[in-house]
Structure formats: C-alpha cells, structure tokens
C-alpha cells in the first residue's frame, strides 16, 4: 500500500468517467474539473474502457481496496457496465450518480459487479429539486432509487448538498431514510471553493447538533473522520438523549451500528470545508475523465497525465502523485493571523528571476 508523507494510506481511487452531464446543478463542482455543460455525445478526450481498466489493474498492485466511478454523470457512458465488469475483483465498486439512468440499467450493473451506489437527491420536493438541478427529472430520480434497491445495491446512499435552498428539507430527508431500510443519507456541506457563492453555505455545526439530539448512536468513520448518526424512525418513541451510545472516535470503516438495531437509519455528514481533520484522514486519489491523476479535489496544480504511458510508467506516476499528496486544509492552506486561509509558502512556486 502506498502512504503519503502525512501518513495517509491510499485505499481508494475515484475515477471520473466523463465531464458531461444531463443536469446542470447550480452548485456543481464537477469534482474539480469545470463546467459539465456541453454536448451529451461521447468526446474524444474521455479515457477509453481499456485505459480505465489498465489504471485499475495498476491500482490493485498497490493494494487499493475500492473504486468509485463518478463524473459528470457516469451513466452517460454506454460502456459503464463493461468497465464495471472488467474492474479487477479485488476492488469493491461503487458509483455516484444522479440516478436518472438507473431504471432499466441497475440490474445489469449489479450483474457486472457494482456493489453499491450513491444517488444525488437534494430534496423531497419536485419544485426545489427542479430549481437546484435545473432539470425536470424528479420522477426519474425517484424511479432510479427504486431500481437501485430492487437490483440489490446495498447500501443506497442518498446525497444531499446542504445549502440555503435545501437546508429546510434536511429533517424530512432524515425521516425518509430512517423509515426506509436500505437507504442511507449523506449530508454534504456545500463546497464553495471551486464554485463561488460562499453565501449559500450554512453552518454545518447546527446540523451536527440537531442530529446529535435525535440520534440513538453516534460514531466516526475512518474515512475523513466523518461523523455518523443512527436515527430511529419518528414513531413517537423518544430514543435519543440519555439512551444515546457515546461517540467512539476509534471506530474503523465499520458499516454496522455501534448498537445492533437494523431498524435504524444511518446519516453521515460530509463536511470538508476548512476542515483539517477531514483532510488529515483523506485516503483517496482521483483520476480525471481525460486520464490525469489528481491528488486532491481542491487542487489542479498536482495533475499528472497517464496518456500514452506504459504500465510501469503509470506505476511510477501513481507513486509520484501519492508522494506529492498533502492535506489541503491545515497543510497546503494554512490559517492567516486574521483567521482566513492562505497558500502555505512551501507550496508557492518561486518566481523566475528576471535578470
Ligand atoms: N473536499 C473533499 N470532498 C469530498 C471528498 N470525498 C467526497 N467529498 C464530497 O462529497 C461528495 C459526495 O461524494 P460521493 O461521491 O457520494 O462519495 P463519498 O461519500 O465520498 O464516498 P462513499 O461514502 O465511500 O460512497 C463529493 O462530490 C464531494 O463534494 C474528498 O476527499 N474531499
Ligand atoms: C459532481 S457529482 C458527480 C456524480 C453525479 N453526477 C451526481 O450528481 O451524483 C458528485 C457529487 O458531488 C456533489 N457536489 C457537486 N458540487 C458540489 C459542491 N459545490 N459542494 C458539495 N457537493 C457537491 C453532488 O451533489 C454529488 O453528490
Ligand atoms: S448531476 Fe452531478 S455532475 Fe451533473 S450537474 Fe449535478 S452534481 Fe454536477
Ligand atoms: S486533502 Fe483534498 S481531497 Fe482530501 S479531503 Fe482534503 S480537500 Fe478533499
């Protein structure tokens, strides 16, 4: 396994299969790769299935355990099932999708080896959903969630980006997953770093506090030290408060609740913004749709192209990208005296001398 100089093992890779999308979400960071708008037809610069599989084979040589396919919208790739089928068996396979193309395709993906899926569903409200995604696909997404559950994908995580337009729907979404076994919820902090509009952000501490009150159990996940809350369905039975199981900071990537109760809903908070603890526990390397290795979501100055490389050159590039990884908040970005953030002097390129 490769470990960077901040003692972070690389256990997962996130492969963006395309930068195209059939939605135009107002908040989209497109995994740090710019605009998703444009023709929906396949484009030449997207990595072919052979190159994706070749990279994944190299990743398994370094004991990477998991691959996440993302985008853009990964299901715009007609060869997605082929890519999943050819993914080395050693890797657990997940996908993050807007869900619209799951009806009719979910089963084939499961047959090909997809283990689980995250589906973006920002609100349980047609109008808000339409405003946020700038699409009229609300019914298709709900159908997609149903198709994922029917196909046996487990778990099916619903992703909600929490910002000013969706924050009001959080309680409803929490109840929704608590009442529906098989569903989990990820409440993702709005990340303005790549998209602007910092005024859309809301204080995630309030969401943590609200969930802590409601939860019957709380634990932290190894990945990013993300906090997980187990919530009982709202059937009038008060189960939070004194009965709550205390936070266990030392839990590893354990999918089972700290108490044995399958009727509980699981809600995870993804809060990477200005969060050095999140970055200190980051174990992922990314691959862009056009075949660049990328050590951090928030950086574009660490890209390393894999185009035209031999396997041994890909191995070397992977080693190099891992060696150059640094936690974004707390190392690449450091606090200023005024409490803001600035690039650490160590990572500022010296200006070329003019004389
Ligand atoms: N800054 C930052 N944000 C991340 C990172 N991983 C996930 N996120 C945020 O969380 C969003 C949703 O991630 P998903 O693709 O659903 O996957 P995930 O939650 O990270 O992964 P799993 O829980 O393992 O399925 C991403 O698009 C980012 O906005 C990360 O390493 N750094
Ligand atoms: C870039 S999308 C790609 C996969 C797929 N198209 C989807 O929407 O699920 C991956 C995830 O990033 C989230 N996301 C996009 N922009 C974000 C932002 N500015 N802040 C936080 N999360 C964001 C989306 O909600 C989605 O869950
Ligand atoms: S569906 Fe995903 S990739 Fe498409 S615009 Fe929305 S967040 Fe971005
Ligand atoms: S180091 Fe980069 S990719 Fe990792 S958690 Fe921090 S911002 Fe995200």
Automatic annotation (TrEMBL):
According to its UniProt entry, one GO biological process term is:
Mo-molybdopterin cofactor biosynthetic process
Q: What class of enzyme is it?
A: lyase
Pathway where this protein functions: Cofactor biosynthesis; molybdopterin biosynthesis
The protein's required cofactor(s) are namely: [4Fe-4S] cluster
Segment Disordered: which positions? 231-258
Superkingdom, natural source: Archaea
* Record EC number: 4.1.99.22
On whether Coiled coil is a keyword of this UniProt record, the answer is no
**Which family is it part of?**
Belongs to the radical SAM superfamily. MoaA family.
- Describe its function: Catalyzes the cyclization of GTP to (8S)-3',8-cyclo-7,8-dihydroguanosine 5'-triphosphate.
Instruction: Provide a Gene Ontology MF annotation, just one.
Output: GTP 3',8'-cyclase activity
Positions contributing to [4Fe-4S] cluster 2 binding: 279, 282, 296
Q: What keywords sit in the KW lines?
A: 4Fe-4S, GTP-binding, Iron, Iron-sulfur, Lyase, Metal-binding, Molybdenum cofactor biosynthesis, Nucleotide-binding, S-adenosyl-L-methionine
Report what the protein is called: Probable GTP 3',8-cyclase
Recorded catalytic reaction(s): these are: GTP + AH2 + S-adenosyl-L-methionine = (8S)-3',8-cyclo-7,8-dihydroguanosine 5'-triphosphate + 5'-deoxyadenosine + L-methionine + A + H(+)
User: Where, by residue number, does S-adenosyl-L-methionine bind?
Assistant: 27, 72, 120
Q: Where does [4Fe-4S] cluster 1 bind?
A: 21, 25, 28
Residue ranges occupied by any Radical SAM core domain in the UniProt entry: 5-234
| Co-factor binding details | Binds 2 [4Fe-4S] clusters. Binds 1 [4Fe-4S] cluster coordinated with 3 cysteines and an exchangeable S-adenosyl-L-methionine and 1 [4Fe-4S] cluster coordinated with 3 cysteines and the GTP-derived substrate.
**Residue positions binding GTP:** 14, 68, 96, 157, 284-286
